[in-house]
Amino acid sequence: MLTILALGTDALAYAMALFIVCVGLSVTLGLMRIANLAHGAFAMIGGYAASHLTTDAGFGFLPALLVAILVTVAAALPIERFLYRRIYGAPQLTQVLMTIGMTFVIVGTVNFVFGPTLKSIVLPELLSGPVDIGFRSIAGHKLLAIGCGAVVALGLWVLFNHTRLGLCLRATVADAQMTGHLGVHTASINAVGFVLGVGLAALGGVVGAQLMPVEPYYALRYLMTFLVVVSMGGAGSIGGTLAACLLLATLSTFTQYMFPDFGDLFLYLAVILVVVAMPRGLLGWRRA
Amino acid sequence: MSWWPCRADFLGGAVRNPGSRGGGGARELVGFAAIGLALGLGYLLMPDSLALLTRMIALMLLVMSLDLVTGVGGVATLGQAALYGAGAYAAGIASARLGIGDPLVMLAVGGLAGAGAGLVGGALVLRGEGLARLVLSIAFAQVLHEAASKASGITGGSDGLTGIAIAPLFGLFAFDLWGRTVYWLAGSLLLIVLVILRALVRSPFGLACAAIRINRERAETLGVRTRPILLRLFVVSGLVAGLGGALSAISTRVVGLDSLSFILSADALVMLVIGGTGNIYGALVGTFVYVLAQDRLSALSPFHWIALVGALLIGVVLFVPRGMTGSLGALRYRPGAPGRRLR
Question: Which of A17, A232, A9, A287 is nearest to A144 (CA)?
Fold first, then answer.
């Protein structure tokens, strides 16, 4: 029972860290309709920036987090302007090539700038050790991931369902042309969505750094996981992404516990099963 | 040729594969002769690098197989290494575990295993659309990768499969230390596959695949049964990739997990795009350029290399979307002939 509880917390923390990164990808994918393989690279920029700020520049965790997000968004904006805009609506192969190319360049550049070693992010005193939450204690970084994930999920839910901006975002995802005809400036909506997506990637990269270590090939190592989550969750769906993250993290944590020497074999088998059985995503049946 | 059960004959002049326009037999023969000449020149000019050239040819087979599904059939996949690795492991296991050392039998085993993997992988990948299709291709390759890693009793796991012994070719030509025999075996294999694939691309079957790539709905309306045809394309692709894998097992006598890796799948895609998609020759040119550059620039740190490759990819997508061979072909573009961009 205690094991299940411990594994459950691990899975939840992993799911939430995954969720923060992937929901960003889901938003940009839904808006821009691009197979964006470079999303993990933005999370990686965030992670490296935060690591540099907290270890070498003496920043506190929170300011470092904010600066890292700003740096990532600032790096992503010219990329959107000069590269992404050329492949909107292009064939999938073109998008894959372009975004993989970007990923390679970012991986190379980041390692050139920060050095090819495993990076750590210094956490505040409060979260660096185990934290007592009443009936048991839990590692601080896991608590951080769970908390941030919950805040992001709630924040996005409010944003999408209870603000005018969210309405415009959803409308643009559903039918960009029609939304434009109704007087919404869809280009700015797209820009907002892109910034939101990249910002979430950076946030997830920093907050999830203990669960998905910031290392030289981060962008490629977790690329598959991110893509799997989004294709299981369905593009542009917050609930679907959350469900996919929970499912994937639970599967991954429990299979690694029960069949440690099988690696990710069962995980990928499960992924194939889910994607084949539900090609529209986990909650896709609702939007038939 | 009506032995492919499809109706692409209807599409006639409307559908062409890049590089297959006009000309005909004579131009094809010139192409084959050029490749044959290049193989001979490679032997004469780079006698110390025959191992590199043989590795190149094995990878060329992989990239050609990718060109079939992606360039000709229009199915973007990031899991082509699955088919290559299946061939490599099947051939390696046949030799190291079952004692089948005849290189031709090993090639056949590898090709069949690749075709089998192509059948299963293709059936899976074609179930999805868009991003789901990419994810399925990656996941399929990962499943094989994890399975090969786990079944270390048979595959050698992460240490790699060793103990591959090769009997002399036809019982006459032993595999020498300098890799001459294996080079000629590889070169002949490459030429044979090239001739067959060029014929395939120009056949009604190849045209049907091109029709699906260009406009799927229209092809369906014209009576092309898209899924069975693409599945057949995957099987042929698997056969070619499997031959490449088997060739690498024969020439290096070791099979590692990297032959199933995501990196190899992505590399193959890069090579194909540099060379140009859809005309088979692009696969040869792209692989040659990429592997040669990789070999010559091996002093470069891996991160410089990866950034360079990334910049090259972006540059190709932006400025030469048809790749090297496609752009050359465009130089003799005739108005009225149906030219095409990368699709």
Answer: A17
Which chain B residues are closer than 8 Å to A105 by Cβ? 307, 310-311, 314
- Of A229, A242, A231, which Cα lies nearest the Cα of A279? A231
pLDDT confidence of A135, banded at 50, 70, 90?
A: low
What pLDDT score was predicted for residue A9?
83
Q: How many CB atoms lie within 10 A of CB A7?
A: 16
ipTM value, please give it: 0.82
Residues contacting A9, CB < 8 A, separation 6+: A138, A142
- Considering only CB atoms, which chain B residues are within 8 Å of A230? 131
Interface contact B342, partner A, CB < 8 A: yes
Question: Which among B189, B158, B188, B186 has a CA at the least distance from the CA of B250?
Answer: B186
**Which of A32, A86, A100, A278 best tests the B interface by mutation, with the highest count of B CBs <10 A?**
A100
Single-letter amino acid, residue A256: Q
Q: Are B307 and B101 in contact (CB under 8 A)?
A: no
Token representation of residue A284: 């896709």
For B173-209, b/e burial (b = at least 16 CB within 10 A) is eebeeebebbbbbbbebbeebbeebbebbbbbbbbbb
Q: Considering only alpha carbons, which residue of chain B is nearest residue A225? A: B135
Is B314 an interface residue toward A (CB < 8 Å)?
Answer: yes
Q: Which residues, 6 or more positions from B84, have their beta carbon under 8 angstroms from its beta carbon?
A: B61, B62, B65, B114, B241, B242, B244, B245, B248, B259, B260, B264, B268
Question: What span, in angstroms and rounded, lies between the C-alpha atoms of B164 and B253?
Answer: 5
Contact of A268 with B139, CB cutoff 8 Å:
yes
Q: What percent of chain A has pLDDT over 70?
A: 93
DSSP B76-137: --S-THHHHHHHHHHHHHHHHTT----HHHHHHHHHHHHHHHHHHHHHHHTT--THHHHHHH
What is d(CA A22, CA A153) in angstroms, rounded to the nearest whole number? 11
Q: Please report which helix (H) or strand (E) contains residue A132, including its range.
A: strand A130-132
**Facing residues of A132 across strands?**
A137
A164 or A140, higher pLDDT: A164
- Residue A130, H or E segment: strand A130-132
Secondary structure of residue B319 in the 3-state scheme = helix
Q: At what angle do helices A265-277 and B131-150 cross, to 10 degrees?
A: 150
